[in-house]
DNA sequence: CATGAATGAGTATTCATTCAT
DNA sequence: CATGAATGAATACTCATTCAT
């Protein structure tokens, strides 16, 4: 999304705006991806319409098929972008310089903030799981991205255990899934929860409460 | 599902199996519901096909529309059935006679077992949330079903606090969402997790580990 | 329609109203005809729905098919009833005792009143003509009904000519069609005329103006 | 209709008839409109089938929906074309240069010729009125087309009155409706009239008699 | 004879994808 | 390589009519 805005600004400042959008293959690709991300997030894979993506991105239908091959491959490309961005955010954290407890709290809260700030990602992953991760498995780029995160968690657990602040015997995969679950499920299922519990879940105050709840739960679970 | 199985079994043992399923409004409605539950769970609301539902349930297309009105209303009926069954399971627990800790562990583990045993429900709720709970809101029957569950949680919290085993100041809605999240997210997102972490998550042993992990996390969070 | 009201009244005064409607074949037939007249007039033959007719008439679907055989035959029965009622109204006029001019004006104005008071008839005949009078031709009862009317017109023309008030050489069929056209077309096409000329055509005052216009036009046409 | 005939003729004389009709948006649109006009006129709006229109026009179903949006909008487009053609014919008359009586007779006879030559229009308007002019009201193009015609009638009435050949106090809307009614109703209801009066109404001689009848009736009505 | 469940052909409309220019 | 027209299989939904009880 950020990319699309900077692109638009570039178009205004450059000399030949009409010709610019035509020639710039990267920009066309980018506009398609941005529109596709929104459409797939809004409607899910099956509900999304290729026609809507070309309408919003203002590209020709053949361009879309030229750059991405099919609706499925376009969805895969969108997912790759999503995982890249999630990874980029999590890498920014400089957790290695923090204490184990501080690092873990930071990780939990930053994970929560991803779903809050980019709820599209949550929806895309939900849709992908309804399709049994078919597109994630197709991608050669997504799977390798998750090793560093798991490494970070393992390192935090090890440091915490050595420092005597965390228990031993924690399964890092279970822990990662719980960290994600506590915030992602809250966001992705907020509509049914709001309907069932007659309460608002997306106000800033409520979201902060949830972040603390999630971090507390993880830290209490780990406490020696 | 249980109904369909007993129906099938009855058909085999009785004299006229072909005639038995015909011209029986309740049975026809049930066959449609069973097939629809499966189809909607398999493909999500948008991916599901009415034609497939009528093919599997062996009913005439018009019967489906006569009984349920539209694909949307059929989906709503499926969701109502799902929530009813979830509620029925949770009501069976006789938690009131247990100690607060035992009751809470039982609640967490039974919630986990729902998603393990009927993963269809998980998928239906995921699809419904992609549609922003549109059908849940339409239903007059679903919302009221959730009050008793929240009451049970509040009662457990109160008893635990009075007995000095649980902390005070716990938000019951946050707690409910976390209980659900820890097991449901594990199941619903297992496909991406399995792809990313190259590990099996649905073996009996692994599921038991997850159940204990979730219960431990909740109980440690509540411990005074 | 009048028939249906008197029927309803009868039901109220009799002893066993529940049993009465079940057994009375004539009443069932009548209820179907009344509902069918309304539905066919509202939507035209193609737009009309058999299901709507059975819903309104509160009869069983099989009864409708038992009494009338098919949608087409039901429409034919409705048309027969319409033509009967039109004829009955026109026969009431006792034109033979009037002067030729008075008789002709009476005939024109009464014809106009038919379309005003029972616009359903207009619509049924319009729909029937879209189907090229298929059902009218099928009916053995409709065609003979129109001879007396044409005889009345011929007689009026003859008397008027003999009395020196009407011109000779008038084609009675052309005259009949014009008498009908001047009022029926005004009613049947009022919706487009109202849209195009931005004026109201169905107020009592406007209808009276139209009736006089039509009668004036016919009488001036005939004047010696 | 004229367009379709010239198109067909062109195809026959040119080199590549198959290629000529393909990939030409205007021609495709036109083919659809021609086929739709025929189908809607033949069966009425409700009886008409989109499938039949695409079969006759040899276009892809999606093209029809791409160009016209829906069956309703296609019908509206057909009606707009009809009203345009009617207006174009009436504008050709150069009535302003004629005497009031001559002008009025010309207007009546030309109106009659429209229904004789393009009976489809009659049927389309009849169907539209069964739908209470729903599509005419939707159109922004149809309503304005009728002002010039009414202006012509008013001008004829004024000139005739000033010349002492027409009476005063004539309502132009009533007059317009009668001019239309006398010929249109004859055509649109010819099937029932032919069945009832056992006479042929569409022979050239009979049509000429009717035209004179209608013109005589209007002119005698107006005569001072 | 009444009832309501069942039937299957059909009806407008949509969609991902390809082809001609 | 860009453009917009074309494609055809599908998709939710409807309707007149019949059958079993």
From TrEMBL, chains A, B, C, D:
Q: Where is this region: Disordered?
A: 1-24
**Looking at the record's lineage, which domain of life comes first?**
Bacteria
**What's the protein here called?**
TetR family transcriptional regulator
Q: Which sections of the sequence are annotated for DNA binding?
A: 49-68
The reply on keyword DNA-binding is yes
Organism, scientific name = Azospirillum oleiclasticum
The record places domain HTH tetR-type at: 26-86
Going by the UniProt record, its keywords in alphabetical order are:
DNA-binding
Q: State whether keyword DNA-binding applies.
A: yes
Extract the InterPro entries matched here: Homeodomain-like_sf, HTH-type_TetR-like_transc_reg, HTH_TetR, NicS_C, Tet_transcr_reg_TetR-rel_C_sf
